[in-house]
């Protein structure tokens, strides 16, 4: 199996997993990976349920949005311009997960960023706060510009009145961050509800950057796993 075939398999597996965990429903959302060697984007097709998704339906494009390979039936996601704009802006990332998960999308509708209320917010990458990219119509160059600009200094964001998006060095990292976006959004909602709308305490970025494995845990000097 060559590299692109491996990336395709990873992409299909992640898309199916996202549906199983309710990050996406009803054919919503899209996923992509970028191969720096060949400079191509592999993206999920438009209008295909993830339960039916197979590797043959994935589309391969270059960074000029030129389709290089497809099955002649399933077009690339209509939001592929957004993916391409992000890869151009962020050459350090290799995967993108765009979801319409329930709680994250509710805050996207309200145009309300998610603050760092848990220590796990450090998993989100550059910015512990989840910002909101200004509204633009899905599938347009305007949306591509809005989201890629917002993600220049963040690895996750909400899309106003739309959904959420997570970046990663690979698909595993991007999908993990997408799951954390939804989990933090749900906990933020519950906290606001319990607290009668008052904002909870947040954690400073400096605090989130201090985590380290505890040095008080001792291992044998001849540990075979070292």
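^ structure tokens above, recovered residues below v
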């Amino acid at each position: 199996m060559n590299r692109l075939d491996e990336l395709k398999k990873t992409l299909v597996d992640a898309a199916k997993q996202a549906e199983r965990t309710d990050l996406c429903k009803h054919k919503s959302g899209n996923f992509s990976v970028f191969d720096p060697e060949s400079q191509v984007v592999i993206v999920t097709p438009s209008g295909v349920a993830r339960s039916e998704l197979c590797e043959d339906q994935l589309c391969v494009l270059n960074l000029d949005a030129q389709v290089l390979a497809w099955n002649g039936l399933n077009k690339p996601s209509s939001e592929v311009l957004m993916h391409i704009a992000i890869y151009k802006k962020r050459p350090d990332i290799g995967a993108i997960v765009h979801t319409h998960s329930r709680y994250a999308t509710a805050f996207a509708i309200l145009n309300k960023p998610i603050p760092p209320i848990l220590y796990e917010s450090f998993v989100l990458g550059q910015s512990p706060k989840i910002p909101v990219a200004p509204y633009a119509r899905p599938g347009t160059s305007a949306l591509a510009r809005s989201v890629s600009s917002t993600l220049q200094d963040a690895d996750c964001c909400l899309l106003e009145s739309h959904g959420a998006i997570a970046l990663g060095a690979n698909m595993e990292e991007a999908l993990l961050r997408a799951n954390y976006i939804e989990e933090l959004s749900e906990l933020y909602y519950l906290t606001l509800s319990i607290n009668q709308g008052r904002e909870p305490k947040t954690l400073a970025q400096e605090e989130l950057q201090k985590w380290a494995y505890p040095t008080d845990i001792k291992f044998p000097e001849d540990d075979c796993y070292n």
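The beta strands are 30-35, 40-43, 59-62, 67-69, 95-99, 132-133, 156-159, 163-168.
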